[in-house]
Amino acid sequence: MREERQRHILLCVAGLTPQIVTETLYALTRQAGECVDEIRVITTLDGRDKIMTGVVNGRGRPEESLLHPEAGQFYAFCRDFGIDSRAIRFDEKTISLLHTRDGLTLPDIRTPEENELAGDRICDIVRELTKDPGTRIHASAAGGRKTMGIYLTAAMQLFGRAQDTLSHVLVNEEFEGNPAFYYPPPKPVRLRTRDGREVSTEDARIYLAPIPFIRLRGVRSNWLYGQSANSYGQIVRSAQDNLDFIEKEYDLNVDLRRSRVVVGQGLRVISLTPRELFFYAMFALFRLEGRGGDGVVSLFQLRRADFDATFRRVTAARGREIGLDKSVVYPGFGFLEKMLGQLASAEQIPEFMSKFYTLNARIKEKLDGLPEQFTLTSREDRGKACYQLPLPPERIKFVS
User: Which among 156, 191, 215 is the end of a domain?
Assistant: First the structure.
């Protein structure tokens, strides 16, 4: 089956100089050989008007727009380079406006509050775009107010994936900021500079400067999957909190009596159901015992003895040790016999594995906000699914 190509999205921040969009598009497609399937622009109300009509507050011309039906520079770019403009999705619907918390659009960004709102909106847009694994984001931090470029860079650090890029487009001095220059056309034209000199677009130079950035998605914090209502500031604080977790190397306390996980001295307390606690505790025991060398155990290697040892540990913490061989229905743990039966039956093993995957997903969801070291991570070994609690054994403690 043929693998589908990733959808390439050019993401720009822009103000009243929409040239940044066509300059970056030129650098990506004509110089770097990249494909662009969609253009997304984050801007203000005035910026949108400039892109759509070229006119803001009665000033400007259609030739200064990108999307004016007759005179838009985006359409001119496509004609000049033989591109079907319909092949690149770019219209008013792909323009994202900055707005206030009550939904009013921002005409410009000037006050500290407006800057904060811009950061929240840019962060939210980047998070949404990077949710789709079938996309590749080419983010350009060159346009708009300086803080917009800074926020876009920060958002890419928080949410950017391995396939995503961040860059800044540079134009030589004679053409930088020239309202008549949008890209070097195949047939050179002469333009007038601000100081009255005449220059030819043949001498225009556009440089795409890649910006290396640290991708923080691996921290596995709730800022990655949380609600979009989270502000940029909240997301940064949460991410920093999780980086501190890694640096400070907090201990993990598995509280078997209260069915919870405690990180540090009560810094994080997360309640689990009996089923979630049981399997989390089982793999914590595997890590302490050094099973598989470093606690890596395949689901196919699980045996009744493993279930029994974990069950004894749980019941002992709750006052009286009981093994699975006793005909006692322990409150909350009636699932064990059924899952053991599935594990012992070749026909039912797929059902057991499916239930375990679902269970582990729920555990990860509850532990979201903790670094990956605290979750049950999966990997494949010779075609078999294996799991491990990767936290160093000296940091794992059972409490009762």
Answer: 215
